[in-house]
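Lab channel / #folding
Pinned by the channel admin:
"Please post every new chain as: sequence first, then the structure tokens as a reply. Keep commentary short and put observations after the output so the thread stays searchable."

First post following the new format, from NK:
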Amino acid sequence: MAADTPALRALESTDLAYEVVRTERARSAEESAAFQGIELGQLLRTIVIRRGADDYLFVLVPGGRQIDWPALRAHLGVSRLSLPDAEEAKAATGYERGAITPFGSTNAWPVIADAMIPGLDEVAIGGGGHGINLHLRGADLVAFLGADVAEVTKADEPA
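Reply from TO:
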């Protein structure tokens, strides 16, 4: 299968073991997990966070969880973090919102992975396009990205 996103092209010549899973574009995390045949907690969202002017990082958040902002700020030793708007996120990563991934990003920003991720036998992370997903072991993902592992998420609050 031809590599057709920067993420897939970036992974072509690596030794990382992964499977590309293509689905139709999902309308929610729950739908994406169902399309891929995985549990919601195995589906990882890549959130780009602004630390300062032209200073970003990626946070990998399992489905059904959200960033614990006080924990993330404490982990980073900062008092302020923010989410960039869609245009700024695309400028920082090369990806549009909903397709952001650390793989093949236009900048190699640091990655923080929630502490749950290394213990998961299989996770799904975006492959750089809507409906393009990479399935791999959580520990392999964390090691390959050189991610900082920390408890930076909490369970989603009921709507």
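NK: The chain has a mean pLDDT of 94.
TO: also worth noting, The two ends are 40 Å apart (CA to CA).
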